[in-house]
Amino acid sequence: MRFTKMHGIGNDYIYVDCLHHPPPRSPAELSVQVSDRHFGIGGDGLILICPSERADVRMRMFNADGSESEMCGNGVRCVAKYAFDHGLTKNNPMRVETGRGVLTLHLDVKAGKVERVTVDMGEPILEADRIPTTLPGPRAVDYPLGKVSAAVAEMLLDASLTCVSLGNPHAVLYCESVSRVPLERVGPALETAPAFPRRINVHFVQVRSPEEVTMRTWERGSGITLACGTGACAVAVAGVLTGRTGRQLLAHLPGGDLHLRWDETDNHVYMTGPAVEVFSGEWPDG
């Protein structure tokens, strides 16, 4: 099986071109194998670039544990770069079908190669039951953490969370220093809390100014990652909902920076960031 390793600010996946090659027999099992950073290729998961009847290409995304997710913001930028650079389509803007629906992506092309991509992520989902969470609605904004997980609240003392979906569910928590959060303990406890029937991505945010934040992420199914594009979008939305930040935001993630905007006119969230191809190779067990 031919593969390409790509990343968006360190959020790295193994990409397979299923337009020119047959899809893997079991994407879930393959994702676990190739994601292993010691015995596989190494990555946060597997992304298949597939034919689409509704868009230029379709993206299917599998986490490192084999579970399939609806959407990946950093991943969809890399899908667009691969599709353009490798001649699957030269449309710009490009349309990519995801579990979130069909997204429109504007490509920044230099010397024939895509360097940066702006993704129209659509409208955020704020209704608690649609995120989904069993927390009382209509929205879960600055909800007391102790009512979600007493054990986690004890570790973090006085904290609250805000829930947002960009096609996949996110919980956003604010703190004085993201570096001091025991993410390896808090992340999995919140990911699997009973309040989140489909599990949840967890983000801790340190506000630098109304236009700038630093964040760290625990992704459901993958653990601590260097970046999460949909999570950064959720952070932008949560900042407005809680009055902590404005509608334009620069987010610093461990792997790099994303520029975010929650547009007041169309209610869509726009994310801009790089996409990088690392290397290609052959995997023996396609």
Protein model, in words:
By secondary structure, the protein is an alpha+beta fold. The chain is globular, with a radius of gyration of 18 Å. The termini are close together. The relative contact order is 0.17. It has helices at 27-35, 73-85, 150-156, 183-191, 229-241, and strands spanning 2-8, 11-17, 45-50, 57-63, 68-69, 94-98, 101-110, 113-120, 143-144, 160-165, 169-174, 201-209, 212-219, 223-225, 248-253, 256-262, 269-274, 276-282. β15 (248-253) and β16 form a beta hairpin.
Q: Key features?
A:
single chain, about 290 residues, alpha+beta, Diaminopimelate Epimerase, Chain A, domain 1, 2 domains, 18-stranded mixed beta sheet, 5 helices, about 20% helix
Question: What layout of secondary structure does this protein have?
Answer:
Layout lengths: L1 E7 L2 E7 L9 H9 L9 E6 L6 E7 L4 E2 L3 H13 L8 E5 L2 E10 L2 E8 L22 E2 L5 H7 L3 E6 L3 E6 L8 H9 L9 E9 L2 E8 L3 E3 L3 H13 L6 E6 L2 E7 L6 E6 L1 E7 L4
Parallel strand pairs: 2-3, 4-6, 11-12, 13-15
Antiparallel strand pairs: 1-2, 1-18, 3-4, 4-5, 6-7, 7-8, 8-17, 9-10, 10-11, 12-13, 13-14, 15-16, 16-17
How would you summarize this macromolecular structure in one to three sentences?
The protein contains 5 helices and 18 strands.
Identify low-pLDDT runs: none
Give the helix/strand class. Answer: alpha+beta
Number of helices: 5
Shape: globular
The biggest beta sheet is recorded as: 18 strands, mixed
In CATH, the architecture of the largest domain is: Roll
Q: What is the CATH level 1 assignment of the largest domain?
A: Alpha Beta
**Share of helix, binned:** 10-25%
CATH superfamily of the largest domain: Diaminopimelate Epimerase, Chain A, domain 1
Q: What is the number of beta strands?
A: 18
Percent strand: 35-45%
Order of helices and strands: EEHEEEHEEEEHEEHEEEHEEEE
Kindly state the mean pLDDT as a whole number? 95
Radius of gyration from CA coordinates: 18 Å
CATH topology term of the largest domain: Diaminopimelate Epimerase, Chain A, domain 1
* Distance separating the two termini: 5 Å
Count of domain modules: 2
